[in-house]
Design goal:
InterPro entries: OMP_Chaperone_SurA (IPR050280), PPIase_dom_sf (IPR046357), PPIase_PpiC (IPR000297), Trigger_fact/SurA_dom_sf (IPR027304). By secondary structure, the protein is α+β, with helices and mostly antiparallel strands. It folds into 2 domains: about 300 residues, Chitinase A, domain 3, CATH 3.10.50; about 100 residues, Roll (Chitinase A, domain 3).
């Protein structure tokens, strides 16, 4: 809630997931139309008998959306981006399940592009190419040819990625024109929010990543299996951001599933109770929520309007020794103990260089180390040191032994939070995103989709 989202029109909370998630195909068109007609009760008997052998929910990976064709190649090329991020570790069965999720995302993308065109919202090819070039610049040093070659090598294509860019730009531009001008946030609302932030100073807030998969009643088991496979692949080294962009059905997919900084009260109860127990870097899921399943990744957590000690800038000296080839574990342990004793005899950072030279150790100095950039296991112990104190030795027979000595520390300043204008912009974004969910839901309801 404190951080300001500079990526306009991307949903920041999980509120309203159920209404967004279950529209496509859930119990026929009656549920969707109930959004614009009087609500009615859907009656399903306990003893359901299915007439006929055809399952209308078994979909092949091709579809025609209001006349626009999505081919199996389109799906394969999008799927290839995730496969590449995971070193192609997915089995054929896993790929088959995830391909259906990609198809659903491509259907939404087609609806967004179609709606933008119908409203005379244009995104030129030059703009798409420019955005594509920026992606190439970040990954390949401004070399679009290298980017093209990479995409083709992994089984994707430049056209597939540019289509995704077109979809995101078209949708955001449409929202900016058709929804943003009609969103109002009063000064009183902003001032009240600022007061609540001040009142909650010191309470914890969380930066959470999400992957949401809609689960209609007749495919809930399959979607759960899908989500479980995604969790397993991420735990084995897959990219959470890549999975979120390609498979999540929340609008945060556009930013890799990042919800930004939020408080637990902003999450549905099923998720807040889980997030409360998570530690940074932890992945949890699938978690059942109304309409589907969620996968949560805790990126970080901090205290509202409070300086985070991990933002301290440290001055460190690393003293290290290596072991000769053939050193046994017992010999290494003895030398490490002698090494630690010698370094303890040093009287702070002013004399440690001379002590290290006397025992043949190497010293590396760095006075611009952010505590949060260090491995989590040593962050807290290091922040508890006073200048001249050291951490216990760490290392291995192969890599040698190292000791970190703290030489100084610049503590961070307290965060005053967003100013009035920043907070108003954030609140406007949140309201735009809620309208966007309803907009996309209605497009799904009215779409003519043929599966081949």
């Amino acid at each position: 809630m404190v951080a300001v989202n500079r990526n306009r029109f991307v949903k920041r909370t999980l509120t309203g997931f159920a209404s967004l998630a279950v529209i496509a195909g859930l119990l026929g068109t009656g549920v969707a139309r109930a959004q614009s007609a009087p609500q009615g009760e859907i009656v399903i008997p306990d003893n359901v008998k299915i007439f006929g052998n055809d399952n209308p929910n078994v979909r092949k990976a091709t579809a025609v959306v209001n006349g626009d064709v999505i081919t199996g190649t389109d799906v394969d090329q999008r799927l290839a981006l995730v496969l590449a991020a995971n070193q192609n570790k997915l089995s054929d069965e896993e790929q088959k399940r995830l391909r259906l999720q990609v198809l659903r995302n491509l259907i939404d993308e087609s609806l967004e592009i179609q709606e933008a065109k119908a409203n005379d919202v244009e995104v030129s090819q030059a703009e798409v190419d420019e955005s594509y070039a920026r992606v190439a610049s970040r990954n390949f040093g401004q070399n679009t040819s290298a980017m093209d070659a990479y995409l083709k090598r992994i089984g994707s294509s430049p056209e597939s990625l540019k289509r995704q860019i077109l979809g995101e730009m078209s949708w955001q531009r449409l929202l900016q024109r058709n929804i943003a001008p009609f969103i109002n946030v009063s000064e009183d609302e902003v001032n009240e929010t600022i007061q609540r932030l001040q009142a909650s100073k010191g309470t914890e807030e969380y930066r959470i990543g999400e992957i949401y998969l809609a689960a209609p009643a007749d495919s809930r088991e399959q979607v759960y299996t899908n989500a479980s496979q995604i969790v397993q692949q991420i735990k084995e080294g897959g990219s959470f951001v890549a999975y979120a962009r390609q498979y999540s059905q929340a609008s945060t997919a556009a930013v890799g599933g990042d919800l930004g900084w939020i408080r637990l009260a902003q999450l549905p109860e099923q998720l807040s109770s889980v997030a409360k127990t998570m530690q940074p870097g932890q992945l949890v899921g699938p978690i059942e929520v109304p309409g589907g399943f969620d996968i949560l990744y805790l990126i970080d957590k901090r205290q509202v309007l409070t300086a985070d000690p991990r933002d301290a800038v440290l001055a460190l000296k690393q003293i290290s020794i290596n072991f000769p080839a053939g050193t046994t574990d017992a010999q290494a342990a003895k030398k490490a103990e002698e090494f630690a004793t010698a370094i303890k005899a040093a009287k702070g950072c002013g004399t440690v260089d001379a002590v290290a030279k006397g025992i043949g150790a190497e010293v590396v100095t760095n006075d611009q180390v952010k505590a949060r950039d260090l491995p989590a296991a040593i962050q807290s112990p290091l922040l508890e040191l006073s200048p001249g104190e050291t951490l216990p030795p760490f290392g291995s027979v192969k890599d040698g032994v190292r000791i970190l000595m703290l030489c100084g520390r610049d503590d961070p300043q307290a965060d005053d939070g967003p100013n009035f204008d920043q907070l108003m912009a954030q609140m406007e974004d949140e309201r735009i995103n809620k309208r966007a969910q309803i907009y996309l839901r209605d497009l799904r309801r009215d779409a003519v989709i043929e599966y081949n």
